[in-house]
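Appendix B, record 7
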Amino acid sequence: MNKKEIYEHLASIYLDASSKTSKKKNKTKRNKSIHAAAITVILMVSAITGYVAHSYKKDSPQGQVALFLFQDSAKINFNFDPAKKETFALNLKKLNLAKYKSLGFSVRKTNSKDILSLRVEFINRFDEKSEIYIRDVTNKWIEHRIEFSRFAQINDWSQMKALNFTVEEWNAREKSGIVYIDNIKVLK
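Structure tokens (predicted):
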């Protein structure tokens, strides 16, 4: 096609389109009002959810940045005949936790009559070990948050080797039972 044919083709398209525009004007007015209403609704919902998310993040420790180490429920099924302790161990594979401030998890036991404590232990690449005890684990889910500063024997958090949760015979009244640990995470 040469230039003249192209111009004539474009002119015919433009002239045909201009005769159809009067029919489309009513449709476009209706579409614009529908779009305006939809945008208004979207903005209102965004403003409401943004406010809720902001207040949740500000008032709740769950709103912090978290790295989940194990999201499923871990199960420690202990039977102290002949064992003396049962452990759920997480291999941290030299994970750098230096920028994190605390450990978070939920725990519960199945036997409401049993009285037991749970040992929580970190080990780093230098085999520095530090543990704390969660006393009186209940039969309802309780969320725990433990500041890293409580693990006083750990000096280097840059290459962590393991995180262990242990039920020991001398820290449980009953000889057998089950302890569940859920949502194991570190928080900034």
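Remarks on this record: The beta strands are 66-70, 74-79, 85-95, 102-109, 118-124, 129-134, 142-147, 160-168, 176-187. The two ends are 66 Å apart (CA to CA).
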